[in-house]
Here is the input.
Amino acid sequence: DASLGDAQLRLGDYPAARESFERALRDGERVGITADTVGMAADYALVLRETGDAIAAQRLLSEALEIVENLKSQGLVFHRGPIEEQRARILAQQGRTSEALAALRRGTTPVTFFLKTDPTLAPLRDDLGYVDLLADREARLAEQRAALEADGLLAGPAELNERGWVSDR
Here is the structure.
């Protein structure tokens, strides 16, 4: 249900996404965030806000941030997803841009696709610090890619085709 909710969120079908997230988060009579479900908190909060429940969204984000801070204080860097990225998504939804950017900078995910497409990070996208972070990540990925190619550890389409791993069809 959470994966379905994420897909519905990305398609802009907020009412359906809300239903899916609530099914995924149902714990008896209460729908809530736990350490095991904190990874979807920012998505669910965005859906709550988009369906007119901004107060519940803020309450959920506060609960989720408390859980993530507790996990971080235990020395965890990964729990159902990278902790700093989870913090960044929550902080971005709370409008705490500088803290969200700092969390992203500390984060371990070099994947720029995440930064470009995650709807919970949308509040950050016009900030120059975000633009700089994205450029830095892309530059680091290019450096890593070049090093792998230089060592012969990264094959491009021509090499894959030569090895028979890609067909011309």
